[in-house]
Design a protein that fits this description.
This protein is α+β, with helices and mostly antiparallel strands and about 220 residues long. The chain has 5 helices and 11 strands; from the N terminus they run H-H-H-H-E-E-E-E-E-E-E-E-E-E-E-H. It has one domain: Sandwich (Jelly Rolls). The protein has a 6-stranded antiparallel beta sheet with strand order 1-2-3-10-5-8.
Protein backbone atom coordinates (compact mmCIF):
# COMPACT_ATOMS: atom_id res chain seq x y z
CA UNK A 1 0.00 0.00 0.00
CA UNK A 2 2.82 2.43 0.85
CA UNK A 3 4.41 2.06 -2.58
CA UNK A 4 1.03 2.40 -4.30
CA UNK A 5 0.28 5.67 -2.51
CA UNK A 6 3.76 7.07 -3.11
CA UNK A 7 3.60 6.27 -6.82
CA UNK A 8 0.19 7.91 -7.16
CA UNK A 9 1.40 11.04 -5.39
CA UNK A 10 4.56 11.30 -7.49
CA UNK A 11 2.64 10.75 -10.73
CA UNK A 12 -0.32 13.00 -9.86
CA UNK A 13 -2.82 10.10 -9.89
CA UNK A 14 -4.39 10.81 -6.50
CA UNK A 15 -8.05 11.00 -7.62
CA UNK A 16 -7.71 7.78 -9.63
CA UNK A 17 -6.16 5.99 -6.65
CA UNK A 18 -8.94 7.16 -4.34
CA UNK A 19 -11.63 5.97 -6.75
CA UNK A 20 -10.01 2.55 -6.87
CA UNK A 21 -9.63 2.25 -3.08
CA UNK A 22 -13.09 3.64 -2.33
CA UNK A 23 -14.62 0.88 -4.43
CA UNK A 24 -13.37 -1.70 -1.89
CA UNK A 25 -13.36 -0.06 1.57
CA UNK A 26 -13.62 -3.33 3.53
CA UNK A 27 -10.46 -4.58 1.81
CA UNK A 28 -8.66 -1.32 2.55
CA UNK A 29 -9.61 -1.50 6.24
CA UNK A 30 -8.55 -5.15 6.41
CA UNK A 31 -5.09 -4.17 5.17
CA UNK A 32 -4.78 -1.72 8.08
CA UNK A 33 -6.01 -4.35 10.53
CA UNK A 34 -3.29 -6.73 9.37
CA UNK A 35 -0.66 -4.44 10.92
CA UNK A 36 -2.42 -1.95 13.25
CA UNK A 37 0.53 -0.77 15.37
CA UNK A 38 2.13 1.70 12.91
CA UNK A 39 -1.29 3.02 11.90
CA UNK A 40 -2.31 3.51 15.55
CA UNK A 41 0.94 5.31 16.37
CA UNK A 42 0.21 8.09 13.86
CA UNK A 43 -3.59 8.26 14.27
CA UNK A 44 -5.71 10.05 16.87
CA UNK A 45 -9.06 11.51 17.83
CA UNK A 46 -9.11 14.99 16.29
CA UNK A 47 -10.08 17.95 18.49
CA UNK A 48 -13.04 18.63 16.19
CA UNK A 49 -14.56 15.25 17.04
CA UNK A 50 -13.61 12.80 14.29
CA UNK A 51 -11.11 9.96 14.10
CA UNK A 52 -8.10 10.88 11.97
CA UNK A 53 -6.71 7.51 10.92
CA UNK A 54 -3.52 7.86 8.87
CA UNK A 55 -3.38 4.66 6.84
CA UNK A 56 -0.21 5.61 4.94
CA UNK A 57 2.27 8.36 5.73
CA UNK A 58 4.31 9.18 2.64
CA UNK A 59 5.89 12.34 4.05
CA UNK A 60 6.78 14.77 2.51
CA UNK A 61 4.69 13.66 -0.49
CA UNK A 62 1.46 13.38 1.48
CA UNK A 63 -0.71 10.86 3.32
CA UNK A 64 -3.73 8.60 2.91
CA UNK A 65 -6.28 8.96 5.72
CA UNK A 66 -9.65 7.79 6.92
CA UNK A 67 -11.79 10.43 8.64
CA UNK A 68 -14.60 8.92 10.73
CA UNK A 69 -17.41 10.73 12.55
CA UNK A 70 -19.17 8.33 14.94
CA UNK A 71 -22.85 8.78 15.90
CA UNK A 72 -23.41 10.12 19.38
CA UNK A 73 -19.83 11.27 19.97
CA UNK A 74 -19.17 14.90 20.80
CA UNK A 75 -18.20 17.10 17.86
CA UNK A 76 -17.08 20.70 17.52
CA UNK A 77 -18.17 23.01 14.71
CA UNK A 78 -15.36 23.71 12.31
CA UNK A 79 -14.10 27.21 11.75
CA UNK A 80 -13.92 28.29 8.13
CA UNK A 81 -10.41 27.35 7.03
CA UNK A 82 -8.16 26.36 4.16
CA UNK A 83 -5.17 24.00 3.91
CA UNK A 84 -1.48 24.07 3.12
CA UNK A 85 -1.89 21.30 0.53
CA UNK A 86 -4.23 20.12 -2.22
CA UNK A 87 -6.36 17.15 -1.20
CA UNK A 88 -8.85 14.76 -2.75
CA UNK A 89 -11.59 12.99 -0.82
CA UNK A 90 -14.37 10.43 -1.31
CA UNK A 91 -17.39 10.03 0.98
CA UNK A 92 -17.51 6.31 1.83
CA UNK A 93 -20.62 6.32 4.01
CA UNK A 94 -22.91 8.92 5.52
CA UNK A 95 -23.09 12.48 4.20
CA UNK A 96 -21.14 15.73 4.31
CA UNK A 97 -22.30 19.29 3.83
CA UNK A 98 -19.55 21.53 2.46
CA UNK A 99 -19.77 25.31 2.47
CA UNK A 100 -17.31 27.33 0.38
CA UNK A 101 -16.31 30.90 1.23
CA UNK A 102 -14.27 33.78 -0.09
CA UNK A 103 -12.94 37.02 1.35
CA UNK A 104 -15.22 39.81 0.13
CA UNK A 105 -15.76 43.47 1.00
CA UNK A 106 -19.51 42.89 1.38
CA UNK A 107 -19.12 39.77 3.54
CA UNK A 108 -19.60 39.21 7.27
CA UNK A 109 -16.86 40.34 9.69
CA UNK A 110 -14.31 37.73 10.69
CA UNK A 111 -10.90 37.61 12.29
CA UNK A 112 -8.23 35.90 10.21
CA UNK A 113 -5.57 33.76 11.86
CA UNK A 114 -2.58 31.98 10.37
CA UNK A 115 -2.20 28.46 11.75
CA UNK A 116 0.99 26.45 11.87
CA UNK A 117 1.55 23.08 13.51
CA UNK A 118 4.49 20.92 14.41
CA UNK A 119 4.46 17.22 13.57
CA UNK A 120 6.72 16.59 16.57
CA UNK A 121 4.22 17.70 19.23
CA UNK A 122 0.99 17.71 17.15
CA UNK A 123 -0.21 21.09 18.43
CA UNK A 124 -1.84 23.99 16.58
CA UNK A 125 -0.31 27.46 16.81
CA UNK A 126 -2.14 30.65 15.77
CA UNK A 127 -0.97 34.10 14.70
CA UNK A 128 -3.56 36.87 14.34
CA UNK A 129 -3.57 38.32 10.80
CA UNK A 130 -6.24 40.96 11.35
CA UNK A 131 -9.93 41.61 10.53
CA UNK A 132 -11.44 40.54 7.21
CA UNK A 133 -14.89 40.03 5.67
CA UNK A 134 -16.09 36.60 4.62
CA UNK A 135 -18.91 35.59 2.23
CA UNK A 136 -20.37 32.11 1.67
CA UNK A 137 -20.54 31.36 -2.05
CA UNK A 138 -21.68 27.72 -2.24
CA UNK A 139 -23.30 24.97 -0.15
CA UNK A 140 -23.10 21.38 -1.38
CA UNK A 141 -24.56 18.20 0.12
CA UNK A 142 -22.29 15.23 -0.56
CA UNK A 143 -23.75 11.73 -0.10
CA UNK A 144 -21.77 8.50 -0.15
CA UNK A 145 -19.91 8.12 -3.43
CA UNK A 146 -19.20 11.84 -3.84
CA UNK A 147 -15.59 12.61 -4.80
CA UNK A 148 -14.02 16.05 -4.80
CA UNK A 149 -10.68 17.88 -4.79
CA UNK A 150 -9.74 21.15 -3.05
CA UNK A 151 -6.75 23.42 -3.65
CA UNK A 152 -4.89 25.00 -0.70
CA UNK A 153 -6.43 28.52 -0.69
CA UNK A 154 -10.07 27.38 -0.93
CA UNK A 155 -11.84 28.47 2.27
CA UNK A 156 -14.45 25.98 3.45
CA UNK A 157 -16.32 24.38 6.33
CA UNK A 158 -17.30 20.70 6.54
CA UNK A 159 -20.28 19.39 8.52
CA UNK A 160 -20.82 15.66 8.83
CA UNK A 161 -24.18 13.90 9.12
CA UNK A 162 -25.22 12.79 12.64
CA UNK A 163 -25.12 9.24 11.23
CA UNK A 164 -21.86 7.35 10.86
CA UNK A 165 -19.88 9.24 8.23
CA UNK A 166 -16.49 8.25 6.85
CA UNK A 167 -14.32 9.67 4.11
CA UNK A 168 -11.14 8.55 2.40
CA UNK A 169 -8.78 11.52 2.18
CA UNK A 170 -5.57 11.86 0.17
CA UNK A 171 -3.30 14.73 1.21
CA UNK A 172 -0.64 15.82 -1.28
CA UNK A 173 2.66 17.61 -0.70
CA UNK A 174 2.40 20.93 1.15
CA UNK A 175 2.89 24.07 -0.91
CA UNK A 176 3.23 26.34 2.15
CA UNK A 177 3.82 25.93 5.89
CA UNK A 178 0.61 27.59 7.12
CA UNK A 179 -3.14 27.64 6.65
CA UNK A 180 -5.89 30.18 7.33
CA UNK A 181 -8.57 29.99 10.03
CA UNK A 182 -11.48 32.45 10.24
CA UNK A 183 -12.88 33.18 13.71
CA UNK A 184 -15.96 35.17 14.73
CA UNK A 185 -15.11 38.68 16.01
CA UNK A 186 -14.51 38.65 19.75
CA UNK A 187 -13.99 34.87 19.85
CA UNK A 188 -10.75 33.04 20.46
CA UNK A 189 -9.09 30.77 17.89
CA UNK A 190 -9.23 27.03 18.59
CA UNK A 191 -7.22 26.17 21.68
CA UNK A 192 -4.01 24.23 21.06
CA UNK A 193 -4.82 20.65 22.00
CA UNK A 194 -2.73 17.59 22.70
CA UNK A 195 -3.26 14.82 20.16
CA UNK A 196 -2.89 11.42 21.78
CA UNK A 197 -2.26 8.49 19.47
CA UNK A 198 -4.66 5.53 19.54
CA UNK A 199 -3.52 2.32 21.14
CA UNK A 200 -3.43 -0.64 18.71
CA UNK A 201 -6.36 -2.22 20.60
CA UNK A 202 -8.46 0.95 20.36
CA UNK A 203 -7.70 1.42 16.68
CA UNK A 204 -8.46 -2.24 15.97
CA UNK A 205 -11.87 -1.93 17.63
CA UNK A 206 -12.70 1.20 15.64
CA UNK A 207 -11.62 -0.33 12.33
CA UNK A 208 -13.61 -3.51 12.97
CA UNK A 209 -16.74 -1.44 13.64
CA UNK A 210 -16.18 0.63 10.53
CA UNK A 211 -15.48 -2.40 8.32
CA UNK A 212 -18.73 -4.03 9.41
CA UNK A 213 -20.69 -1.26 7.68
CA UNK A 214 -19.21 -2.29 4.32
CA UNK A 215 -19.60 -6.06 4.70
CA UNK A 216 -22.65 -8.01 3.49
CA UNK A 217 -25.27 -8.56 6.20
Amino acid sequence: MNDLVRSALVEGRGPELLASLAARPAELISAALADPEPVAARSYRHALGFDKIILVSAWPLGALRLHVWWPGQQRAREHVHDHRFTFSSVVLTGRLRTSLYQLAEDGEPTELYRETSDMADRRWRFEHAGPRRLARVLVADQPAGTAYTMSPPLLHRIEASPLLTATLFLETESTRNWSSVCVDPGAEPPAPADQTAFTPADLTDRLHRLRSTFEPA
